[in-house]
Design a protein that fits this description.
The longest helix has 41 residues. Helix 11 runs antiparallel to helix 12, helix 11 packs antiparallel against helix 16 and helix 15 packs antiparallel against helix 16. The chain folds into 3 domains: 194 residues, Growth Hormone, Chain: A; 50 residues; 237 residues, MFS general substrate transporter like domains (Growth Hormone, Chain: A), CATH 1.20.1250.20. It is built from 16 helices and no strands. With 509 residues, it is an all-alpha fold.
Length: 509
């Protein structure tokens, strides 16, 4: 007698066996690993692609910034779209598009081409990330299993961040800069093969019509706000910054008013009235802010001041990133023992303590102090991100998982943008005020050396040895002194968020 087995692809989430749920999670780790590897690997490829494509300063900024800008603008839209047309379907669409555009980016003949390719990667990346976490929310209906699954999901981010520099450094030593983008192909091909069989489809049972105006408003609001932040960090308070801020806030207000009046809104803004949801998003944002800001100045210190190669610098950062994975997974038993709020708040406090170490000792130029601080921040991020994502998703109905996960992802991306834009800009400002250029240096070169630490090293290559040594010593001191200032600000912010989260959520969970 032949027994018919229902294909996994046609099962609903609640029909999956325990083995099926964890197999589905393994497939969902592929796009998570890809995005985190892609982000960290690109930072090491910037010097090589700069030499090959010779982008202008503005083009180089857009090569780096256009991806998170487009991604942040479209996350809510793609999360809502996945709720409507199917989360597995939009994941597969994103996978196909991301792989194809990655090939175009790898062989970009010009800087403008690469900017356009990075923008398209942002579009398809916005399809990938909300789909992964919303599918997890619907596949793992048991709270304990879901918390473990989200911890593994966060560990995938951290593991990818650890692999990115290693893979990127190795590729750049053996191939051209475009090989960084080709990482997407071997990662996404298994996703496209396995996802139709192992992932169940899920969608909002009562989604309502597609809200074109709502999509336009939320995309404009997020894009304008993020662009305004980056413009302010680069150029200060000018007409463009003010216009972007006004457009972003105005579109945001109109979006909220529209969502409040619709029967089936693409994003139920009333979710923000839930303090568990709102506080979890703030913790999510600030934790990523702390991590990305730290990576921004740690990578520069290790390479430009300590003199390590990109691959060696990446290896030195691995202990911190491994700690992120370990504490992300360890957060699950800690929650069982101590409760969700204490673990999440404890993670944010570890972020603060990591920055305190840097603020106290960073001016000495001690690489050990920076790495110790990095390990503490990574530990805090592993704990706080795992719990905050779980609390945010657990606070909403399963049918709204796509939109809620998109909001959580948006907080993540905005935190990443702010980490570089705010802390990076403060550090650059402190550097410019502190660096002393020898008087014998040509005024034009002197102005270039005052721009960034990397520019100072480029200028030093054209100077006599005595002047070059003096410039590099002053630049290193100015940079490390600036690190102590930015670390103090980031530490104070993390401490304030930890206290606020404890007071607001105490007794609610």
């Amino acid at each position: 007698m032949t027994t018919y087995h229902l294909p996994v692809s046609s099962r609903t989430p609640d029909q999956l066996t325990s083995r099926g749920r964890w197999a589905a999670l393994a497939v969902l780790m592929l796009p998570v690993l890809l995005v985190s590897i892609d982000n960290t690997a690109l930072s090491f490829a910037v010097p090589a692609l700069s030499r090959s494509l010779a982008p202008s300063g503005n083009q180089l900024l857009w090569i780096i910034d256009v991806y998170p800008l487009v991604l942040a603008a479209l996350l809510v839209t793609m999360g809502s779209l996945g709720d409507r047309i199917g989360r597995r379907r939009i994941l597969l669409l994103g996978g196909v598009g991301f792989a194809a555009v990655s090939v175009l980016a790898a062989f970009a003949p010009s800087a403008g081409w690469l900017v356009a390719a990075r923008a398209l990667l942002g579009v398809f990346g916005a399809m990938l990330m909300p789909a992964t976490i919303s599918l997890i929310r619907n596949i793992f209906t048991d709270a304990a299993e879901r918390r473990t699954a989200i911890a593994i999901w966060m560990a995938g981010f951290s593991g990818g961040a650890a692999l990115g520099p290693m893979v990127g450094g190795w590729l750049l030593q053996h191939f051209w800069w475009g090989s960084i983008f080709l990482i997407a192909v071997p990662v996404l091909v298994p996703l496209l093969v396995l996802a139709p069989r192992l992932l169940p489809e899920s969608r909002d049972p009562d989604p309502g019509p597609v809200d074109i105006l709502g999509i336009a408003l939320v995309s404009l609001a997020l894009a304008a706000v993020v662009y305004g932040i980056k413009a302010f960090a680069t150029h200060g308070l000018d007409q463009v910054t003010v216009a972007a801020a006004i457009a972003g806030v105005g579109a945001g207000v109109l979006f909220v008013r529209r969502m409040l009046t619709r029967r089936n809104p693409m994003l139920d803004v009333r979710l923000f009235a839930n303090p568990v949801f709102s506080v979890s998003l703030v913790v999510n944002l600030v934790s990523v802010f702390a991590l990305v800001g730290f990576i921004y100045f740690l990578t520069q210190h290790l390479q430009l001041i300590a003199g390590h190669s990109p691959l060696d610098a990446a290896v030195m950062m691995i202990p911190g990133l491994v700690v992120t994975v370990a504490l992300g997974l360890g957060a699950v038993p800690m929650v069982h023992r101590f409760g969700a709020v204490p673990v999440m708040v404890g993670g944010v406090l570890l972020n603060a303590f990591g920055y305190v170490v840097v603020s106290a000792l960073g001016h000495t130029g001690s690489g050990i102090a920076l790495l110790v601080g990095f390990v503490l921040v990574c530990a805090g991020v592993g704990m706080s991100e795992t719990v905050s994502n779980d609390l945010a998703l657990g606070a909403v109905p399963p049918a709204k998982a796509g939109a809620a996960s998109a909001v959580s992802e948006t907080a993540y991306e905005v935190g990443a943008v702010l980490g570089t834009a705010v802390l990076g800009s403060l550090l650059n400002l402190a550097y410019r005020q502190g660096v002393q250029v020898p008087v014998t240096v040509d005024p034009e070169l002197a102005e270039q050396a005052r721009a960034t630490l990397g520019a100072a090293h480029e200028v030093a290559e054209s100077l006599p040895s005595a002047a070059a040594d003096a410039l590099l010593a002053s630049a290193a001191h100015a940079f490390d002194s600036g690190v102590t200032v930015t670390a103090a600000i980031a530490g104070a912010l993390s401490f304030a968020v930890a206290i606020a989260a404890h007071r607001i959520l105490r007794g609610r969970i």
